[in-house]
Amino acid sequence: MPSVAVHGVTAHYADLGQGAPVVLVHAATNHGGQWEQVRAAMADCTAHAPDTCFRYVLPDLFNSGKTAAWPRPRMLTFDDEADIVLAVMAAIGAPVHLAGHSYGGAVALRAAVRAGSAVRSLCLIEPGGCPLLAAAGRREAYDEYVSVMAGFLSALDRSDPVTAWRDFLNYYRGSPDAWDSLDLETQAKILAKSESQRQVYAAQMNNPTTLDELRALETETLIITGGQTTAPERGVCEVLESHVPNAVLHVIAGAGHPMPTSHPAQIAAALLRHIKAVS
Asked: Is the pTM of this model over 0.85?
């Protein structure tokens, strides 16, 4: 598995296929393998069009997959995570199509802001961006996000990670049984991420991306949201649509926040249309 050195850590990434490079950045508590269903669906779509084959590059962010935890005493930031993406892009050595989901969407956006023309196209699937809600005057959606975060952290402080994750997953998946429907092995893997979720929330609340940076972003950008998502996630997508000059908002009917796994074919189709339009 190839790797790059970032902040003293060996950051690993999968490098699969041949063609125009597509870098896919995973959500929090996940890893590059999150994109397997989307990648398979994209391969199905291009099976009869060899001129549209792709090289899929799937980095593992800090404390994810095969990449070790953030090594420094200060809190992890989105720019630190973006350093992994930028290092992988440098290793590729060619402009890339860049996509990210949730936490990974916020990371991808930071990389795009910093990389300029090295990003041929950008796809953001309900990216994190809580401070953008406040900056754009979306106070109700901002307060809802902060309330969910506060409930999660309060449960952790009470040494009750099961309640923290049950409420978290039930909220984001729009189902009162989301947590209880998981098998014990999956629950255990999620519970093991409890303390690192504090870093995730710290990064979210200190997201450095500004409205002015959005207005200055020249990359052709596809923003994807779900028809059944939460108010904060939809709000961030609408803020991006209204501030990024070359942005298009696409809604996947019936989808909630975990779209790369719940609606991979629809994500793949939208991403392929976007890449082809830019290319």
From this structure: yes
Residue 178 has pLDDT above 60, yes or no: yes
d(CA 2, CA 214): 32
- CB 11 within 8 Å of CB 84: yes
User: Can you read off the two tokens belonging to residue 126?
Assistant: 């309900």
Q: Which residues contact 5 (CB under 8 A, 6 or more apart)?
A: 11, 87
Phi, psi of 84 (to 5 degrees): -65, -45
Beta strands in 32-148 (DSSP E): 54-59, 96-101, 119-125
What is the spatial distance between Cα 70 and Cα 175, in angstroms, rounded to a whole number?
Answer: 32
Buried b (16+ CB within 10 A) or exposed e, 41-68: bbeebbeeeeebebbbbbbbbbbbbebe
What sign results for the dihedral spanned by CA atoms 270, 30, 63, 66? Answer: negative
Contact 261, 268 (CB under 8 A): no
Between the two ends of the chain, the Cα-to-Cα distance in Å is 29
Amino acid at 244: V
**Per-residue pLDDT tens over the stretch 151-174:** 999 999 999 999 999 999 999 999
- In terms of Cα–Cα distance, which of 118, 144, 152 is closest to 234? 144
Determine how β-strand 9-17 pairs with β-strand 54-59: antiparallel
Radius of gyration over alpha carbons of the chain, in Å?
Answer: 18
Mark residue 116 as left, alpha or beta (left: phi above 0; alpha: psi -120 to 50; beta: remaining): left
Nearest to 58 by CA among 36, 76, 77, 82: 36
* Closest of 128, 134, 126 to residue 110, by C-alpha: 128
Half-sphere exposure of 276 (CA within 13 A, CB side): 13
